Amino acid sequence: MSIEGYDEFVFSDSGIAHPVYRRGSGPGVAVIHELPGMSAACIGLANEIAGHGFSVYLPLLFGKPGDWNTTIGTTLVVKGVTTKEIEDPGGALYCHRHPEGYWMPGGASNTGADWVSKLFGDRVEQLNKEAFALIPTRYLTWPLMQEGERFPFASPQARGFFPEGLPDATLFALIDQCVTAMGSRQLRRWLNRPLTDQPTLRSRYQALSALIDGRNFEGVREHLHGIGDIERILARVALRSARPRDLTQLRRSLALLPALRAGLEPIDSPLLQELRARVEEHDDVVKLLTAAIAEEPSTFVRDGGVIAEGYDADLDELRRIATHTDEFLLELERRERERTGIAGLKLGYNRVSGFFIEITRKDAERVPKDYIRRQTVKSAERFITEELKGFEEKVLSARDRSLAREKDLYETILTQLIDRLGPMQASGMALSELDALASLAERACTLEWSRPDLVSESRISIECGRHPIVQRFSTSPFVPNDLRFDSGRNMLIITGPNMGGKSTYMRQAALIVLLAHIGSHVPADRATIGPLDRIFTRIGAADDLAGGRSTFMVEMTEAANILHNATAHSLILMDEIGRGTSTFDGLSLAWAMAHHIATRLKSFTLFATHYFELTTLATEVEGCVNVHLDATEHGDGIVFLHAVKEGPANRSYGLQVAQLAGVPREVITQARHYLEALESQRDQHDAAAADRHSTQRDLFAAAPARAPKSPAPADPLRTAMEAIDPDELSPKAALETLYRLRKLLKSGGEA
Asked: Which of 41, 477, 691, 739 is 20 to 30 Å from the Cα of 177, by its Cα?
């Protein structure tokens, strides 16, 4: 089974052949679930994987049989393993939360492995059910579920089980198709620091077009695929903390640069040719590392075997002495047997005694006079000769001197690399930009995004704009919408039903603008964008209790920041301002803020609201326009159309959306009755005030002295009838309901 976007590596030295997956050429992460009876194999595999540049997460499961509903403690071991044995958790089906929005079941039985198959499908390789499961991920976190939480058998895409949303449902996750860790970091920097310099952005657009033409980005990405994280390696070189395998990775990466430069040469793009010029080939560094560093060096310099054979004559001589010990000992043992006539004579070595000649006690009286007694053991005597003692000193000193020589040579190599650090860092930066551009080109080609046009006049015009994240995760066709801002149209008052798409429409505009200002193509048929300095948002509800700020205080703080700092070249998104206080307070604040932005700041503003009174601003303020997203009722339900149309809406369909969310039917019925009473009272009040006040003055008229009358008690028979859903009744339940209604009718409504 293959996993899209990951490279497969198979490790089998531990005795169990299992694949691990790595995304691109960045650091790999392996998650191993250890199960009873497999501790040694799991630990061996973890050691092997860690030795190949992967970070290993080894959750150790502790518990006792019968712990079916308790949370089992978990320890995360990063880049290391532990030999601590585990106990049988008794087949408990407890879960870990996967960072990509999936769930990893624990458990010692095959049931746990079956959950892996049902919940993950082709997103995870189900490995040996009796051993463990490996999950590919590029994240370094693994939060646990809350105690007592359980995951039902349902699709992982069921949004109701992911209250925090899907971690992959972000703009960065969507556009990050970089094949190197350097490219991903560069792309993140671009996203966090968008540009306003139009010539720079146009050069990126042109580079993307050149990469898309003939799918040139595929060749570039292929050459980049084997390049490691040069930036991080060079940082460790500068700190003299680079390990031998960092240098082998640097050597392999630099050796790929000539082919990459050759692949870029025919592409007609000034920016790409500039990057090609910055990517030097560094032949001198490649030759140095090839000659100096072994093909497969040890992990640490202290272990030896790092410097390549033939690089240093003195080191080679010391190694020869240290590695030809066995030949000398065998020859000496043969000669001593012949000289003494003792067939049982043996040569040995340990760290305490060093080299020695071992003879059984019955033959001890036959040893030559030049034998010096070194140690007496249970059934033998150990001796040493002057020849053996001299050889011991020579061998042991050779090993120590060999390791010391390797360390000195390694430090010298680091010094030579530091002298060449600047050009290599410049190449690493150019490679990161090239990878980021290739990723954006791939996304533009795959997702059918278009190149935006940057103009000097103040305007935003988007044709058939789409929200890239919603479109990716939506199971239904996405409805694209247009957006137009110019000097005579700078504020849109957006009304419409809950769940109708107001927030999606607003955010897709901001995302399109943001993508255009990092140099990317955008999810629209066409986009024309003038000069913009900042994007301001006041969206969602959040509090800061630790900071002493309520939800409404946070909302007002963000709104104040917008009102103080926005300019005529800003894009503002304000979604449902004024919800956290009383109706008239919230309406007054929303009206005043919208009026201030439209008349004073004149920023391009998307202002979504359920205060339909604000739609009168379109007739009072120049540049203010009403648009709405519509919906239609179908039976007891509601159908959202998601299309943006000119003009205001007149309903929010809140009760219908609450019903879709699963609010009990009796609550919906009571809400509908109370809504009818409120609307009736409002109509009476409006009719009485029509002769005395204008519509605008009535907007801020004082509230009635007394609260609205509670609606008359609902007819129990009618309430019972409205609560019945015939489609959900079985024949028996229908008959029982009929008897109950008949009883209500006879009793005059008193059940």
From this structure: 477
CB 511 within 8 A of CB 536: no
Residue type, 139: Y
- Helix 270-278 to helix 421-447 angle (10° resolution) is 150
Tell me, yes or no, whether 429 lies in a domain: yes
**Of all residues in the chain, what percent are helix, strand and coil, respectively (each to 5)?**
45, 15, 40
Is pLDDT above 50 for 260?
A: yes
Residue 186 identity (one-letter amino acid): Q
Single out the residue of 700, 502, 484 nearest to residue 610, CA to CA.
Answer: 502
Q: Is residue 111 part of a domain?
A: yes
Instruction: Please list, in sequence order, all residues whose beta carbon lies within 8 angstroms of the beta carbon of residue 643, skipping any fewer than 6 positions away.
Output: 479, 481, 629, 630
On whether the CB atoms of residues 710 and 677 are closer than 8 A, the answer is yes
Alpha-helix residue ranges (DSSP H) falling in 597-712? 617-620, 654-660, 665-689, 695-699
Range of the domain at 740: 715-751
Contact 643, 481 (CB under 8 A): yes
Q: What is the CATH number of the domain that holds 575?
A: 3.40.50.300
| Helical segments of 23-170, H only | 39-50, 110-120
Type of residue found at 424: M
137 and 231 co-located in one domain: no
First to last CA, the chain: 63
- pLDDT single digits (tens) 43-92: 555 566 556 655 554 443 333 322 222 222 333 332 232 222 222 233 22
Whether 612 contacts 650, CB under 8 Å: yes
Backbone phi, psi, residue 578, to 5°:
85, 15
Residues 217 and 223: their CA atoms lie apart, in Å, by 10
Q: What is the pTM of this model?
A: 0.66
Instruction: Give the CB-side neighbour count of residue 151, counting CA atoms within 13 A.
Output: 30
* b/e map 410-442, b = 16+ CB within 10 Å: beebbeebeebeeebbebbbbbbbbbbbbbbbb
Residue in the block written with tokens 């025919």? 266
Q: Report the alpha-carbon distance of residue 321 to residue 477 in Å, rounded.
A: 74
Contacts of 404 (CB under 8 A, 6+ apart): none
Coil vs helix vs strand at 372: strand
- Residues sharing a CB contact under 8 Å with residue 662, sequence separation 6 or more, in sequence order: none
3-class DSSP state of 624: strand
Distance (Å) of CA 430 to CA 139, 200, 222, 231, 370: 25, 15, 16, 11, 71
Q: Classify residue 359: in a domain, yes or no.
A: yes
Whether 671 is covered by a domain: the verdict is no
Q: What pLDDT, on the 0 to 100 scale, is given for residue 8? A: 59
Tokens of 557: 């703080």
Count of structural domains, the chain: 5
> At 386, which CATH number?
1.10.1420.10
State the Cα–Cα distance between residues 31 and 45, nearest whole angstrom: 11
Q: Are residues 206 and 63 in the same domain?
A: no
**What is the rounded distance in angstroms from the CA atom of residue 352 to the CA atom of residue 721?**
94
Provide the pLDDT for residue 255.
95
Residues 502, 583, single domain; the answer is yes
Q: Coil, helix or strand for 21?
A: strand
Q: How buried is residue 315: exposed, middle or buried, by Cβ count under 10 Å (0-12/13-18/19+)?
A: buried
Average model confidence (pLDDT) across the chain: 77
* Half-sphere exposure for 640 (CA within 13 Å, toward CB): 22
